[in-house]
Design goal:
- It is a single chain.
- The chain has helices at residues 12-34, 37-44, 49-69, 74-90, 105-109, 115-146, 152-181, 187-222.
- The protein is globular.
- By secondary structure, the protein is mostly helical.
Amino acid sequence: MLPHVSRQPVQFEEKAVLIGLLLFSLLLLFIVYALDPAITRSLIAETGLFELVSPPLWITLAALCLFKLGANNRWGWGTAALAAIFAAREADWHKAFTADSIFKHAFYRSTEISATQKFWGGLAAAASVVVLLWMLVACVRHICKTKAWRRAWGRLTLLSIALMVFTKICDRLENTIKVDYGILLSAHESALFHMHEEGIEMLLPILFAVALLVWAKDRARLGATAV
């Protein structure tokens, strides 16, 4: 763990990330409102740019985790496994070998899906959830123990997690307000939500990679000997 240190001032990397996110959001806004709607549809499609780029970025992050955190400890393998799971999810592997997504209740209730598919699908889903919960608990404990929000890498990590939650809100919000409140979004508003969902999802592995590199620099400077 990093030794206890005082609060670190805002670093260049943090400013660069915030400015980059702002510019990216403005770019999405420009695409949605100023360009042909076909461009927006092509970007957020299942075979669009955002979806195609995401898996390689998550795989790259997995390799970076092993390289920076080490292949001989739980942090290296755990974070790499988690990144690989997200890569598989973005590549739609959770439904590539079965009749439906292994993370949906309907998959296990269906009488048209074989018991073999349900068994292996359930095993893969359970393993993914175990890794996710294990790393989530370990990450929360580490952040609380080291007061990571005082360091640039900790703030960048928390920002990345917050943006992950934001993408899920963008994914569910339109349907939720339509069903629960009868509010219908315009075509442009709907597209803007979907563009931010898919676009920010694509950026997540990059943001986590930046946080990891800042952590590695901080660790080297402070002379920490363990993760």
